[in-house]
Amino acid sequence: DAGVTQSPTHLIKTRGQHVTLRCSPISGHKSVSWYQQVLGQGPQFIFQYYEKEERGRGNFPDRFSARQFPNYSSELNVNALLLGDSALYLCASSLPTGGLYNEQFFGPGTRLTVL
Amino acid sequence: ELKVEQNPLFLSMQEGKNYTIYCNYSTTSDRLYWYRQDPGKSLESLFVLLSNGAVKQEGRLMASLDTKARLSTLHITAAVHDLSATYFCAVDMYNNDMRFGAGTRLTVKP
Fold it and tell me: C-alpha B10: how far from its chain's center?
């Protein structure tokens, strides 16, 4: 079975530009979460979507937005890019467990470099 | 605010030795996860710990959870080079927010 897929794998942008990152969850998974991992640090939670609705949001500015589509794939959008947005962006999908737990399976990530 | 603290942040071990990585967290949770990350790669799920006293083992790694002490440990037995990686613990906040520690960068030397 295919795991979580993300595209593109690498991306170079300049300050002020906009970027869209894409994620396809594991088949059957309805929840998608996005994380930002700056080099040398642990992942930081950005958003979680479940059944196309935002279910959680981390401490990120409004320049960050996301959405989930009917097929459960997701996009993360970042506007007005800053140098500090350079990071590995990870998407994770999980299978609903009725609130029991939230084991997440991570995709390979998109490496974003802002120049 | 929830804090998740791992120590040590850097660990250099010799092959064959044992060591423990600690993960302390500052709020009530009984759902804790351990992940492994190789350089330039994504995160691989190692263990899911869901209750006080939970202990899980896979090969040379064993994880445990003490929810009363808000502490999880990842014990490495007879380390081998293939275990060299960065290990993260993560605490489930119950509000769909997962908080990760800063990671422990493990290097196993011959």
Answer: 13
Residue segments in chain A with a per-residue pLDDT below the cut of 70 = 1, 96-102
- Report the distance separating Cα A108 and Cα A110, nearest Å: 7
At residue B50, the pLDDT reads: 86
* CATH fold for the domain made of B4-109: Immunoglobulin-like (2.60.40)
Residues paired with B36 in a beta bridge: B44, B87
- Map out the domains of chain B as residue ranges: 4-109
pLDDT digits (tens, 9 = 90+) for B65-78: 999 999 999 999 99
Separation of alpha carbons A31 and A26, rounded Å: 10
Structure tokens at A28: 């059957």
Structure tokens at B85: 């990686």
* Mean pLDDT, chain A, whole residue set: 92
Query: How far is B101 from chain A, CA to nearest CA, in Å?
Result: 6
Give A66's contacts in chain B (Cβ within 8 Å). Answer: none
Residue among A62, A92, A88, A87 at smallest CA distance from A77: A62
DSSP three-state, residue B53: coil
Nearest residue in A to B92, CA atom: A102
- Least Cα distance to A46 among A26, A21, A24, A25 occurs for A21
Please name the residues in contact with B109: beta carbons below 8 A apart, sequence gap of 6 or more.
B12, B13, B14, B15, B81
**Pick from B41, B48, B101: CB nearest A42:** B101
CATH number of A5-97+104-114: 2.60.40.10
pLDDT value of position A2: 80
State the Cα–Cα distance between residues A79 and A104, nearest whole angstrom.
27
